[in-house]
Amino acid sequence: MQVASGCLVYCDCIALCPLSADLSRHSIMGCFSSKKTKYTPGYEEPTVLASETSFSVSEVEALYELFKKLSRSIIDDGLIHKEEFQFALFRNRNKKNLFVDRIFDLFDIKRNGVVDFGEFVRSLSIFHPDAPVSEKIAFAFKLYDLRQTGFIERDEASIQVLRLKEMVVALLHESDLILSEDYVETIVDKTYTDADTKGDGRIDQEEWKEFVLKNPSLIKNMTLPYLKDITLAFPSFVLNSEVPDSEV
C-alpha cells in the first residue's frame, strides 16, 4: 500500500541507514530521498491540508487512499476526471448531469479539466459537518452562479433561466424527488421573489446569504455527515501519521 505520510518511510530509513541517534536534519532528508515514493499529481502533505481544512491528518491520509482509488477507476493517471467524479458520486458515468458538471467545475480549482489531490481535499472540506456555514453558503452561490458573474441572474430572454431550472431538476433528482416542470418553475419563481430583496432581477451574494440563513434547508446537501468520521467509514485506509492530529 502506498504510504501517505512519512512515518513508515522514516522507519525504513532508520532500519537501512547505519546512523547514530543524533542524526542531523540533512542526513534524515537524505535518507528520505533514498526511498522513492511515487505520489499522484497535485499531492500535498497531509499536515498542510489538515491545517487548511476541516479534516485531521489521519482523515486526509484516508482521503488520499480513497482519492487514489477514484483516480484510477477509469483512467489510471492519478487524477480524477469528470467521468470518474460522476461515477463516484452517482454510479453513473454516461448520463449528462448539470449538477455534477457544476460540482466538478468548482472542485477543478485550477480549471484544467481534472481534479488533483489538493483540490479534492480542499473542496470536499466544504461538505464537512464542521466547515463554516459561510463557506457552504458561498459554495452554493457559486453552484448557481452559472455564468460566473457574481450574481444569480433572472433574465427571461436568455437561456440562463432554463439552465437554472435544469439545475434545480438535477438537484431534486439526486434527492429522489421528481417534480413536474410547472412545479419546478414555481420553485424558481418563488426563490427569486423571496431572495431578490432589491428587486433588480438578480440575486447578489449578500441577498443569497440572508435568504439561506432564513431557509437553511437550501444548503442541507452541502453537508455530508460521514466526512466527520472518514476514518471510520474507510477503516482500511487509516495509516500511522508522522504528526499527531493534536499538533495540527
Question: How is this structure best described in words?
Answer:
The structure is a single chain. This protein is mainly alpha-helical. It folds into 2 domains: 7-130 and 226-247, EF-hand (Recoverin, domain 1); 133-222, Recoverin, domain 1 (Orthogonal Bundle), CATH 1.10.238. It is 50% helix and 2% strand. The chain has 12 helices and 2 strands. It has helices spanning 7-16, 25-33, 46-52, 57-71, 82-90, 98-107, 117-124, 133-144, 160-174, 181-195, 205-214, 230-233; strands at 152-153, 202-203. It has a two-stranded antiparallel ribbon. Helix 6 (98-107) packs across helix 8. The longest helix is centred in the first third of the chain and has 15 residues, at 57-71. The chain is globular. The relative contact order is 0.14. The model is unreliable at 1-35 and 235-248 (pLDDT under 50).
List keywords for this structure.
single chain, 248 residues, mainly alpha, Recoverin, domain 1, two-stranded antiparallel ribbon, 2 strands, globular, disordered C terminus
Distance between the termini: 25 Å
H/E element order: HHHHHHHHEHHEHH
Helix/strand class: mainly alpha
Give the low-confidence spans: 1-35, 235-248
**Helical stretch tally:** 12
Helix amount:
40-55%
CATH topology of the largest domain: Recoverin, domain 1
Which CATH architecture of the largest domain is right? Orthogonal Bundle
Mean pLDDT: 74
* Overall geometry: globular
Number of DSSP strands?
2
In short:
The chain is mainly α and 248 residues long.
Question: Layout of SSEs?
Answer:
Elements (H helix, E strand, L loop, with lengths): L6 H10 L8 H9 L12 H7 L4 H15 L10 H9 L7 H10 L9 H8 L8 H12 L7 E2 L6 H15 L6 H15 L6 E2 L1 H10 L15 H4 L15
Antiparallel strand pairs: 1-2
Helix pairs in contact: 3-4, 6-8, 8-11, 9-10
